[in-house]
Amino acid sequence: MDSKELVKEIAKVLDEKKAIDIKAIKTEEVTIVSDYFVIASGTSNTHTKSLADDVEYEIKQRTGIAPEHIEGRATGWILLDYGTVIVHIFQQENREYYNLERLWADASIVDLSDIITEN
User: Fold this and answer.
1) Contact status, residue 59 vs residue 65, Cβ threshold 8 Å
2) Torsion of CA 6, 55, 26, 86, to 10 degrees
């Protein structure tokens, strides 16, 4: 599975689990760290942890791919590292504070309109 397909699968899981403001940015042209970031928010600490758990489980079930590393399970910012795709799941106030979208403004936005439901 290529990186863009993985991004779309991750976005589907986040959308199914009611994540807020799901965004994907293509980072491969601005950093060697990853090809893509997927960024989303949860409504609470419990929801944020649940989103991370669900992404980890569902992506493993659907694609056979597991994260190489996970950080921040006890914080308001959980990172799942899939190598070429890094998933950032925030509590809203932490997302606003760190503002990764602004930090990585030189990266292009991935259109997820065919994946994300309007609710």
Assistant:
1) yes
2) -110
